[in-house]
Amino acid sequence: MDWVVVLGGLALSFGGFEAVSRLQDRLGRPSDGLEPHVWKWLVPAAVAGYVLAVEGRPLSSIGWTVAGPLPFAYHTAVGLAAMLGSALLFSPLWEALGTADAMRDGMAAFTDRSVAERLVVAGTAGVTEEVPYRGYAVERVTALTGSPLLAAAVSLVAFLAAHVGEHWSRAAAVQMAQPTVVLLALYLWTHSLPVVMAVHALNDAVGLLLAGDTTARPRE
Predict the structure, then answer these.
(1) What pTM value is reported for the model?
(2) Over its length of 220 residues, how does the chain's per-residue pLDDT go in tens digits?
């Protein structure tokens, strides 16, 4: 595959959310509420359009494929169990490092939202972020380098860097490495975007729905 075309797709994938955010600011759109999350859908739409129109390839080339209902359910269940299990396993480490407090601070931005709003946020993140950071990045960097592990590393760094900002600190991004590695491993196993989308969305839903319980307590 033409490396120039791939670099263009990676630039779109890794810079898309920042570009959309700047467009929102330029248009004077609100930075809170659900509207910013609606804008996020422009990024996967743009990446999909790039794959179809510029690369001339099917969306299956970036993981838009499902082996069938039973494999989908199985892979999703295994992925979610790995996400939640690894979170419990590593929780003492995050508490010791202080990143757990950083995550709680980030989650505090969502505690005043309704259950429906939290589910919309979780579903949006699960779908919109997987297309550029898992599907496109992993598949195209692998095609360029021949190394799925290098592709996963590039995806990991780009994904974590993109999350450092208004809601999430660098310390929170460190803790995000744990679920991100699980998602990358799941994608390398299945090469199925719908699977990692489902696991990502479900994991975020669990975290956001529990956010009130972890942040409502008085802080020392």
Answers:
(1) 0.90
(2) 688 999 999 999 999 999 999 999 999 998 788 888 999 999 999 999 999 999 999 999 999 999 999 999 999 999 999 999 999 999 999 999 888 888 888 888 788 888 999 999 999 999 999 999 999 999 999 999 999 999 999 999 999 999 887 678 888 888 999 999 999 999 999 999 999 999 999 999 998 998 765 433 333 3
- 3-state SS string over the chain? CCHHHHHHHHHHHHHHHHHHHHHHHHHCCCCCCCHHHHHCCHHHHHHHHHHHHHHCCCHHHHCCCCCCHHHHHHHHHHHHHHHHHHHHHHHHHHHHHCHHHHHHHHHHHHCCCCHHHHHHHHHHHHHHCHHHHHHHHHHHHHHHHCCHHHHHHHHHHHHHHHCCCCCCCHHHHHHHHHHHHHHHHHHHHHCCHHHHHHHHHHHHHHHHHHHHHHHCCCCC
